[in-house]
Automatic annotation (TrEMBL):
InterPro entries: DNA_Partitioning_ATPase, MipZ, P-loop_NTPase. Gene3D superfamilies: P-loop containing nucleotide triphosphate hydrolases. This is Chromosome partitioning protein. Pfam families: MipZ.
C-alpha cells in the first residue's frame, strides 16, 4: 500500500503548498512515484504550483519530475447524508486509483475544516502540520494562558486530529505519525521563539506529536511559485544561483525529509 502523507493546518499562510511541493520533489528524486491531491478545491494553490511547473517545463524544453494528480469536487447532492456518502466514495476511489501506481500519496488540505480534510486526516500515515513560528499560529494547536504561557487545553483542530487517530485505531490501522513543522523560524533567539518552543514541547507530550524545524523565512521560497520550481530543481534549470542562502535553504529541505523518517526514502539530492 502507498504511504499517505497529509499536510493539514486550518489556518492559511502556513506554507502547506510550499512544503508539499518540496516533499513531492524530494520523494520523486529519491526514485518514488508520487500521487497528489489538492483538497483546497477553491484556491488550488498546490495544483496551481504544479501547473506553473508544467508551463515552465514546456517553455524551457526540459524535463522535471511530475506527480500523478487526482482531482476531486464537492458533492452537489441536496441531502447532507447523500453528499457525505458521495464525497467519501470519491475520496476512496481517488486513493485507490493513485495506489495502483504510486508508492507515496501526498494530500494538501485546505485552511478550513471540510469533510474531505477530515477523511484525509483519518487516512494519513504521516500527518504534517506546518505552522508559522508565532504564538498566533500556535493557537491552531492549543489555547495558552496569557499570563503564564501555560497550555490550557487543545484546540478544535487538535481534537479533530485526535478523533481521526481514534478512527484509525478502531480500524486496526497503524498509528499516525503526527509531525508539527515549524516554518519561518527566526535566526534570532527572540523571546517569542523561545515561548513557542517551550509551549510546543509541553503540548507534544500531552497530545502526541513530534516537532521538527521546517523552512526559514527566505525570499527564494516565495519566488519559485510562478515557475513551479523547488530548491531541488535549481541545478537542473539554472534559474537561480546556488548562493549561500539557497544552499542553506536546500539543507533545510534535506533536514525535513530526514526528520520525517519516511519508509524507503534515500536522500539523493
Amino acid at each position: 500500500m502507498a504511504h499517505i502523507i497529509v499536510l493539514g493546518n486550518e489556518k492559511g499562510g502556513s506554507g502547506k503548498s510550499t512544503s508539499s511541493m518540496h516533499i513531492f520533489a524530494a520523494l520523486a528524486r529519491s526514485g518514488h512515484k508520487v500521487g497528489v491531491i489538492d483538497l483546497d478545491l477553491r484556491q488550488q494553490s498546490f495544483f496551481r504550483y504544479l501547473e506553473n511547473r508544467e508551463r515552465f517545463v514546456a517553455r524551457k524544453g526540459i524535463s522535471l519530475p511530475m506527480p500523478v494528480r487526482a482531482h476531486l469536487a464537492y458533492s452537489t447532492q441536496d441531502s447532507v447524508a447523500a453528499a457525505k456518502a458521495e464525497e467519501e466514495e470519491r475520496f476512496t476511489q481517488a486513493l485507490d486509483t493513485l495506489e495502483r501506481e504510486c508508492s507515496f500519496i501526498l494530500i494538501d488540505c485546505p485552511g478550513a475544516h471540510t469533510r474531505y480534510a477530515q477523511m484525509a486526516h483519518s487516512a494519513a500515515d504521516t500527518l504534517i502540520t506546518p505552522m508559522n513560528d508565532s504564538l498566533i499560529d500556535f493557537d491552531l494547536l492549543a489555547r495558552l494562558d496569557p499570563d503564564t504561557g501555560k497550555v490550557l487545553g487543545p484546540s478544535i483542530y487538535s481534537e479533530m486530529v485526535w478523533n481521526a487517530r481514534q478512527l484509525r485505531a478502531s480500524a486496526g490501522l497503524k498509528a499516525v505519525d503526527w509531525v508539527v513543522l515549524r516554518n519561518r523560524i527566526s535566526t534570532l533567539n527572540a523571546r517569542n521563539k523561545r515561548r513557542v518552543g517551550s509551549a510546543l514541547t509541553e503540548l507534544s507530550k500531552r497530545i502526541g506529536f513530534r516537532v521538527i524545524p521546517g523552512f526559514g523565512e527566505r525570499v527564494i521560497f516565495r519566488e519559485m511559485f510562478l515557475s513551479g520550481l523547488t530548491l531541488l530543481d535549481l541545478k537542473d534549470t539554472g534559474e537561480a544561483s546556488l548562493n549561500l542562502s539557497n544552499i542553506a535553504a536546500r539543507q533545510e529541505v534535506r533536514d525535513v525529509i530526514k526528520a520525517l523518517n519516511l519508509p524507503d526514502v534515500t536522500i539523493k539530492f
